[in-house]
Amino acid sequence: MAGLSSAVALAEAGLEVCLLEKRPRLGGRATSYTLPDGSEVDNCQHVTLGCCTNLADFYRRAEADSKIRFYDKLYFADGRGRRSVIRAWPLPPPLHLAPSFLFFGALTMADKRAIAHAMLAIARAGGEPPGAPGMSMLDWLHSMRQTPGAIERFWRVVLVSALNEELARTDAIYGIAVFWKAFLASRGGYRLGIPSVPLAELYQGCRDAIVHRKGEIRLRTGVREIRLRDGRFAGVVLEDGTEMAADACIAAVPHDVLREMLPPELSAKGAPLEGLRRLRASPITGVHLWYDRPVMTEPFLALLDHTTQWIFNRTLLHAAEPSVGNSEHGAEGDEASRQYLQLVISASYDLAPRPRQEIIELCRKELADVLPATRSAALVKATVIKEIDATFSPEPGADAWRPAARAAAQKLYLAGDWTRTGWPATMEGAVRSGYLAAEAALSDFGCPRELVRQDPPFEGLSRRWARQTRGRPG
Ligand SMILES: Cc1cc2nc3c(=O)[nH]c(=O)nc-3n(C[C@H](O)[C@H](O)[C@H](O)COP(=O)(O)OP(=O)(O)OC[C@H]3O[C@@H](n4cnc5c(N)ncnc54)[C@H](O)[C@@H]3O)c2cc1C
Predict the structure, then answer these.
(1) Which end of the chain has the lower number of beta carbons within 10 A, N or C?
(2) 71: closest CA among 45, 40, 48?
(3) Is the CB of 417 under 6 A from ligand 1?
(4) Cα(28) to centroid of ligand 1, in Å?
């Protein structure tokens, strides 16, 4: 996403772009591929939120925006399968979601009081409560006197899947930013956007945007080395040994790959890219289950009290005209009535070493609690995708290790979800980094452009409080 977004923006600005991609397809971690039996699977379910303005801009440029469906209701199920829904009410932010929390069945009144207290503290501070930076999210929640129920059944549920890390290993600035941007600052920030097509289909427009402007995309073309001369980009060496020159380069590979490509002194202690050695990664496990009949009516469900964190009803999400609550198509057992579910477990440290069959059995047991129809349905097919180095870990202090676009050398710009964007490792962060790198390159070529989109404007009381505490409305 970082490489594609920068390449598309530069091509649109009139530069001749050559995009080198090691794999046979576009999209990096946010892509899909075909299994030997012909089923198309995403590397893992990817979702966006209403507050992700740069990702939305990128999808527009790639003519993929019509392939993202936004959902106004978020569905939750507790350990016994009881459902709760979060949706916006006609109240000014940050109060628009408050009635949903009031009726949220899985939380006690004490939990809700504690959550309201912490949410208000975030909102009244315009999203920047003092004392939080450098603390772990768990310590911050304790300092806000959160109940064990509020932590386990609310904060952990939202944040572990949003940030792919446990609360004790998450910097509070990232956790607080999720709640401020998605739940408090604006009405639509929390809306969940889900692709209605396999991920790889979202990037067809990028190909056109680059190739139709005299650019080039070379798949299966890995870069082995980035060469510098006198602190300036001098060219790349491909994996087959070919040397390639260019006026400038945006390196949009994962941070551990970049480290291997550059001279080692750049990431030595005290050097500008020391952070490449410091950033650590955390794992995500995706479990794909195909049942012989419909077992789920909601488009997706967030689970409380389980190892499984999210279930996505891929059959419904990819249906031409999804009608929530009705996924009955065809007769039981026939091909057309099969239902494909995709389960996601973030920060899945415990699952990473476990055999795939054991993970499938664990998930099936959990599904029986929340989707009783799975008990009598036959599992036709299952697959587990473990991404051990899924995203960088937003641990306390990690932000200091994230380099900015210009940190490496002249005419060499860095992009990737791990660079300094202020955002955690998300598609939004990756696209922001791509735009930041493209802005830097365009400015050095003497044709500056603003590419990065601002966050959605703050609204209601959140706007007023942000103006009082930050001195600006956002
Ligand atoms: C399992 C999983 C689930 C996720 N879920 C979500 C989600 O729901 N929402 C969300 O916003 N984000 C999610 N993310 C995070 C999101 O996928 C990433 O933040 C984003 O895709 C990162 O984009 P990137 O361009 O920075 O990096 P990458 O996608 O890693 O891109 C790097 C590219 O460099 C290429 N490359 C590597 N080495 C070389 C080489 N030597 N030469 C040439 N090319 C090379 C790679 O093939 C790749 O295409 C998820 C990530 C994972 C792994």
Answers:
(1) C
(2) 48
(3) yes
(4) 4
User: For residue 320, with 0-12 CB atoms within 10 Å meaning exposed, 13-18 middle and 19 or more buried, which class applies?
Assistant: exposed
- Stretches where the chain sits below pLDDT 50 are 326-331
- Distance (Å) from CA 83 to ligand 1 centroid: 33
Measured between alpha carbons, how far is 270 from 28 in angstroms, rounded to an integer?
A: 30
For a ligand 1 pocket test, name from 29, 237, 255 the mutation site with the most ligand atoms within 8 angstroms of its C-beta. Answer: 29
Q: Which domains does the chain have, with CATH numbers?
A: 2-67+194-279+395-444 (3.50.50.60), 73-190 (1.10.405), 281-392 (3.90.660.10)
Residue 78, ligand 1, Cβ within 6 A: no
> How far does the centroid of ligand 1 lie from the alpha carbon of residue 379, in Å?
30
pLDDT single digits (tens) 407-421: 999 999 999 999 999
Q: pLDDT tens across 129-161, in order?
A: 988 888 999 999 999 999 999 999 999 999 999
Residues facing 385 on adjacent strands: 286
pLDDT, tens digit (0-9, with 9 covering 90-100), for 334-390: 667 899 999 999 999 999 999 999 999 999 999 999 999 999 999 999 999 999 999
